Task: inverse folding
């Protein structure tokens, strides 16, 4: 139960990260925010894993850093979407589609065919996406395209991260990946002309919340939780993130959500549950057939 509780808290912290990010990027360029937030977050995690990092081989470090680059690209697109969107909850539900997109990504990259659960859940998730985005006829907002692109890039990160999961400890991998997100963001900031900004007390408070709690502590709890419970349970708990984001957006940002968009979010939520449940059943049947 401790692992499940850690994952539950991680989803709340992730939702808090959406709110904090939206508030921060109102006064601070998103790319600068990503670079500094994740660089500092990796340094917060460093005391927990520096000894094991020191024992890693060069190949292991390169693998984790390579996967971190894709996470960095996904988050750069994501933070731009956050800065221009009028609906954080909508973005959170679109980003949750990464779990559905991942099997298709694995098929394209590694010729691993999706299971039957994917083909059942895909039409349902597409229907949910259409309900959320096509509220003004056949027009999709700019932020929705960016959230969808970020979700696709995040699915690449999921697939690659799964590939290296048996070669490097999770906490070591996360620390290196967060560091690489900071590096990718820093390179983008260095190559572009970023707008100047002033650091106010309000900005500093929300930046600390997003860095320490919504990034470092969130990933630490998520890692411990995922290690302690089975994959299906972890996945079911983690899809609570867009639900919390919706609630916090309404309470803290005064976001109003149309009934059609709520219906779309519910359909996406149900498609994720269907995918996880059917995948678990397929895996159990496959193992039984081998006995």
Result:
């Amino acid at each position: 139960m401790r692992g499940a509780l850690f994952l539950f808290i991680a989803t709340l912290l992730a939702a808090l990260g959406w709110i904090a990010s939206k508030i921060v990027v109102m006064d601070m360029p998103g790319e600068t925010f990503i670079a500094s937030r994740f660089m500092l977050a990796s340094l917060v995690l460093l005391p927990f894993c520096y000894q094991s990092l020191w024992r890693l081989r060069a190949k292991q470090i390169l693998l984790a850093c390579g996967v971190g680059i894709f996470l960095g690209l996904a988050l750069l697109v994501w933070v731009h979407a956050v800065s221009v969107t009028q609906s954080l909850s909508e973005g959170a539900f679109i980003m949750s589609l990464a779990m559905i997109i991942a099997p298709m990504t694995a098929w394209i990259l590694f010729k691993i065919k999706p299971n039957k659960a994917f083909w059942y859940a895909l039409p349902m998730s597409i229907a949910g996406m259409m309900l959320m985005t096509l509220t003004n006829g056949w027009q999709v907002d700019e932020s929705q395209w960016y959230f969808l692109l970020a979700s696709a890039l995040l699915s690449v990160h999921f697939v690659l991260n799964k590939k290296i999961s048996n070669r490097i400890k999770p906490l070591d991998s996360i620390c290196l990946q967060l560091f690489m997100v900071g590096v990718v963001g820093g390179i983008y900031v260095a190559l572009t002309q970023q707008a100047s900004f002033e650091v106010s007390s309000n900005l500093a408070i929300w930046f600390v919340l997003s860095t320490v709690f919504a990034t470092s502590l969130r990933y630490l709890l998520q890692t411990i939780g995922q290690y302690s419970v089975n994959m299906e349970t972890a996945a079911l708990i983690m899809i609570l993130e867009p639900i919390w984001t919706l609630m916090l957006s309404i309470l803290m940002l005064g976001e109003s959500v149309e009934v059609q968009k709520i219906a779309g979010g519910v359909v996406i939520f149900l498609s994720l549950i269907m995918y996880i449940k059917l995948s678990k059943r397929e895996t159990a049947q496959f193992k039984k057939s081998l006995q």
Remarks:
- The first helix runs from residue 2 to 24.
- The chain has a mean pLDDT of 85.
